[in-house]
Design a protein that fits this description.
The protein has 14 helices and 18 strands. It is α/β, with parallel strands linked by helices and 458 residues long. The strands form four sheets. Strands 7-8-6-5-12-1-13-17-2-18 form a ten-stranded mixed beta sheet, sandwiched between helices. Strand 3 and strand 4 form a beta hairpin. Helix 1 runs parallel beside helix 13 and helix 4 runs parallel beside helix 6. It is globular. The N and C termini lie far apart (55 Å). The structure holds zinc ion (ZN).
Amino acid sequence: MRNASRRGAVRGRRLAFVGACALLAVMVALPAMGSPTHPHEQRHPRVRNVILLIGDGMGDSEITIARNYAVGAAGRLLMDVLPFTGQMTTYSLQESDPSLPDYVPDSAATGTAWSTGAKTSNGRISTTAGADQDLTTILEQAEASGLVTGNVSTARLTDATPAVLMSHVNDRGCEGPDNMANCPQDLISAGGQGSIAEQSITKGVDVLLGGAADKYGQTITEGPNAGKTVAQAAADAGYAVVNDEAALDAATAGTPLLGLFAEGHMDLEWTGALATPYPGSGPQACSVNPDRSPTQPDVDEMTVKALELLEQERRMSHAKGFFLQVEGASIDKQDHAANPCGQIGETVAFDRAVGVALSYAAHHPGTLVIVTADHAHTSQIIPPQTAEDHSPGLISTLITADGAQMVVNYATNLEGRSQEHTGTQLRVAAWGPGATGVMGLIDQTELFEVMRQQLGIS
Ligand SMILES: [Zn+2]
């Protein structure tokens, strides 16, 4: 087990390091791509792609923890080498009084911000705080403009971050036909569009990859698709539905694709001891998760396939470009669980997906890559702990790539309870045409305009 553990940890480090070196070489060889008058855009005036990569809950603290562990304090992750960076505020609104900020947002409100350009309250999926009106999303605008679109997540496709692009409900929990108790006005019989899963297959999204076979397996109870499961309705609407990596690999463009690779969220990349009260768990090295299903693709593999299909579809349909969102979802979920190895493994995997996007962009001028998070989270790097001076929270000591010990602290809730999001601003990084739009301090809603300008949609 110890050998397997060290192999797993080393694999993540080596890939990230080699990838960073290769990318640096590519970027040194290429001229800067931030200027809107760059010659690349004159040679390829019609290509307008956006790849938005969201590390859920991936604040500066989570990035630093993953960097220290995987490549060492002086190392660089792939996401660290994007040349244009800024900071982004993420606050949401209070549902009871939308004139007041909610300083600690959730993924539903933050996703709605970049997806629609408007702030809302926690729990809402692209609907307005208080008033419950639908907000048009960037994916819907892209589809209306004839662009090709994709949505990839390691969570359920009905989870908040993928949902904000392709659905409108007042409660993020209304994921499938059986989960509509809190969204009576979104029922089809009430004039709404149904659950998140039902809405997701009606928006013309070309590539949908993630988890949630359970939600798509629920039976629709109203409207023209009543009696079918959501997956059956998707197939009847023209989707090819695949459930494992082999079928994903075999998928071809020309038919929209729905990939459901897990019943719920997809499996974790790494495993290790949870953080515990003083003296905490560890010192530990993380292990590759032995229980991860071998039929599930990694987030970087899903990204490779999504880009291949979107590029082919773009050419076949003579579209100007595509919009793709990729979410590394379980950074957040393992932060909630005070699971440092789970959190780091998901961050390292997400970083590989960033590498895939940057490599694509390096070979396809006209592609804007944005790497950011939705909200900050609980984990913190703290000093070595003693009996006299230690955190009242949950701690774990990790042995990093430097060969040093790093203490990670989770102290935003009681032991056994879900650790909480936090409200600090986030890094937003970009590369490609329009990348300078993320510089300085922006608000999350401004990402919507940066992406919309690059896509050329009004
Ligand atoms: Zn969360």
